[in-house]
Amino acid sequence: MNPLDAPYDRLDALPRELWLPSLVTAVGDAAQRLTDLKDWLAALDRGELPAPPADFGDAATLAPMREAVGALDLPTLCAGTSALAQQVLRTMLWHLDRIADMQPRLTRRAAIATAAQGFREEWMLQKSGWEEMLALMQGLGDLAQLSWDELRGVLTSREWREAQRISAMLAHLRVLTELIRALGRNQHQPERRPAPNPQPRPQHERLPQRERETRLPDAPGEVMGIRHSDRIERMLGSEAAQIRHPVLHKLWRARLAESRLLTYESEALLQERVPDPGARIREQAAAPRPEALERGPIILCLDTSGSMKGAPETIAKAVALEALRVAERERRRCLLVAFGGPGELVERELGAHRDGLRALLDLMGQGFDGGTDVQTPIEHAIARVRSARWRSADLLIVSDGEFGCTAATLAQLDAARAELGLRVQGILVGDRETLGLLEVCDHIHWLRDWRRFEGPVPQREAFVPVHSQSLTALYFPNALSPRAARRRS
């Protein structure tokens, strides 16, 4: 170290953004100020106040500023966000520099109090609304890599406002969190075993329930055929035409008396949940399940076709947001593959880095309006799983199901399942399973109330026009391919 550089050689330990403010401020001793600024920056980055001795060599002046920083809870706001900590220090140094300008018009004590009050008022204004934004951002990326201008630009962008809106909707989609948590094949998660001496169940505890279907003949519902009866409200049009005929009305009356009118035969299907007393016995007698594999890398395939516009688009973005949160929290890798029509494929790795956050924000601002070509992303995902970096990943497909795959692509998928243990999960944002989803996915998770998310604010409930996701299997069973039928069983 060259003695001629002292004490300004201590600037090397500070970010360049603090050099000018720390040099021009006239408070305290220059050497101690440069040393203490390093302690202030480190403490704020940890979410703490610095020790009282870090006073720039002027305890009387720094005490009110330190008190203001603590009263505004700025250390908590700055934790893990060095750009925000630097901005707090720049603001504090600017207000400290104003003390000399206010004298001799004010006494030194009054000037210090005025500077501290000015700092407090400025940060009360800047702080409003930042807690919520930073709480969301803490789970989406490494904020220490962003400068103050980049951080402020991100938090005021249209994409970030969309991410905030999507984040608010995640409270209504908790099932997605459990699904994403179970993806991957890195860790064994043993099932919980019952206690050796289980406590008796309370008498008021509800029994497990099961689905029961009851067919109600002659009730309004599906038309099953034609039969003879005396039900006037169900007679065919050919029978009704005889009522006003001068001769045939006598025949109509005779057939009515004999219950020989041609009428439609209908049948209603009543689906209800009823108590299942045998469920607990079957549960106790069931063989122990093998250890579950979860908490591994995630390959997320999002359908960005035009049919996903609206509520399905919102849910797809929510899945991507939650996948990044889980990956960041549990230190897992997450690969986003957004697909549309032929040639419309975007692959970005989400994670705690500048490019990962930018990839997420790009998705938040993207409109879904392409075609649908799921073969290319599935083949792309299979190629990724065969690499060492993504070998233990699971594939999650979010789509409305309007797609299909060729036999060659399905063969590649089966080979990856057999050789690597690949699992494919599907999130159905629509009203029915399609052959494409049934043939590709091991399990399909149906979000039956997806219409709740049509507007900017989730509705409390939404009309669900169908009673089952398996409409194709119920009404057109012969339309299922052997592969799709096997997945249904």
Describe what this molecule looks like in 3D.
This protein folds into three domains: 3-128, no CATH class; 209-275, no CATH class; 296-488, Rossmann fold. Helix content is 43%, strand content 15%. The protein is built from 20 helices and ten strands. The strands form three sheets. The chain has a six-stranded mixed beta sheet with strand order 7-6-5-8-9-10, with helices on both faces. It has a two-stranded antiparallel sheet with strand order 1-4. Helix 9 (158-169) crosses helix 15 (354-364) and helix 16 runs parallel beside helix 17 (407-420). The chain is elongated, with a radius of gyration of 34 Å.
Q: Globular, elongated, flat, extended or rod-shaped: what is the shape?
A: elongated
Distance between the termini: 76 Å
Residues in β-strands, percent: 15-25%
Examine the secondary-structure arrangement and name the CATH architecture of the largest domain.
3-Layer(aba) Sandwich
Helix-strand pattern: HHHHHHHHHHEEHHEHEEHEEHHEHEHEHH
Under the CATH scheme, which class of the largest domain?
Alpha Beta
The number of distinct β-strands equals: 10
- Put simply, the count of helices is 20
Low-confidence stretches: 188-200
Average pLDDT figure:
76
Please give the radius of gyration in angstroms: 34 Å
Q: What is the CATH homologous superfamily assignment of the largest domain?
A: von Willebrand factor, type A domain
Q: Largest sheet, described in full? A: 6 strands, mixed
What class would the helix/strand composition place it in?
A: alpha/beta
